[in-house]
Give the backbone structure.
Amino acid sequence: MTLLAVERIKLFSTRSPWWCIALVVAFGVGFAALAAAFTDEQFPLSPQSTQGGATFGQYVIMVMAALAVTTEYRFGTIRATFTAVPSRTAVLLSKTTVVALLAGAVGLVSAFVSWGVATLIAPGTDIAIDTAQEWRGVAGVPVVFAVSAVLAVAVGILVRQTAAAVALLLVWALVVENVLTFLPRIGDDIAPWLPFNNVGNFLTAGDDVASGAAFGFAVDYPFGPWGSLAYFAAISLALLVVSLVVAQRRDA
Amino acid sequence: MIAASGLTKRYGRTVAVNDLSFTVAPGRVTGFLGPNGAGKSTTMRLILGLDRPTAGDVRIDGKRYTELRKPLHTVGALLDARWVHPNRSARAHLHWLARSNGIGRRRVDEVLELVGLSEVAGKRVGGFSLGMSQRLGIAGALLGDPQVLLFDEPVNGLDPEGISWIRTLMQSLATQGRTVFVSSHLLSEMAITATELVVIGRGRLITQCSTAEFVEGASEAAVRVRTPDAERLRTALTGLGKRVTDIDGALLVDGATTDEIGELAAAHGVVLHELTAQRGSLEQAFMQITGQDVEFHAGPAAAPALIGAPEGVSRP
């Protein structure tokens, strides 16, 4: 508990988390408001389609989580931390926990406020969250944020530099996965195994508009939405374990 | 009590610390002396468990640093004053450090008061001068009221007032019976602050001894004598085989002590106006002893040495 408190103090006594939180919520709510204001027959509003800002939010959360580690390396506070608490695994697990919990909390607020704003703007449309699929699309956002934070912390521990960590995460999520997905011939075979594609599958499966299936974009996933989440979580946890082993072994 | 034995650290092919053994005893200030690049900081990092030794080990009261529970209560260290987040306030920085070792908020305010930062405790550390950052680092080292203190180049970049403050602080910590280990490449500073020295060059131990011994052992002792009866004293001294030279109205006697000369003068009934031991400076002693072990020699030889691997760096 002490270590969790320490990491909480460290995280909230700097400014970047506050900016990231504000950005995530503002963008999530902003997107939901726009989606609700401009809904039509081609783009019917659904609980899941109010969460269009979640992907951007996920990227910002990853930046925040990576920064929580890389700034410690940049400013040397990680060495001060390891001097105060020589058990590096305990320190880094606490940091991962605090960042993931924060990411989850931000996701929870952002997802439901976005949905709430959409219902206010388009009162005529029924976007009550009724089915399990709709609950997954909205309440799944905080889960995705939390797991993404774990992934980003792991990458941050491994590469230690802000620019490298952020570039790696965003280039992978935004560029590499898209390029691989649309490769001729083999793209269809690779796409279902890409981690961020699976996040999309978890949040939007079953909703043709939100998943893009209505516009002819479809990936044939080997697992259902929950399998996709488990797959993404497994990759994130595996990276975390690798990063903890590396941090324990190398010179701080 | 800090004890290093056979401590060795290699980074790739570079040997930063080479089979280093020394002890640092409580109750006095021990200087850790060596030119830049001699391996002082690496040794400090090894003591704190930040780097893993390639061979050998270093223990604090018989324990490895990584075995210490709540280590801030045992060891306080200032390795780099810039190891702070610039957007955090001084108080927030100390608060998380304190919390990690179960130290209360009252102690945070106490150490802030002790180092004279109470006024700026709420300000962001990024705006601090180097001197203020050093004070903050020292506050962090003192948080757990530890018996062992490590300071790496604490007076670097400080103004004279700050230097004298740190010097007094270290000496008072040692007087309280604590172990104080302070590194520096500033030999003159060490001569004033430290009573014991661990001297290294190129990662190797050159000597461990008292500061006085280090100076005496390295530079020849000489005594300056002023007397109205110079000729009689000179004759007596040369009679004993001492080498005597004239310098501005006084005699400089090599290889003699003030006791010897005082007694000799008394025996011959010679009046003395001055009898002073001429101490060689620590700088002289250092150059003399470490001449072979300075990492990069100044002068024309330096250029090729800086480009290629200097001879001896990768020796086993």
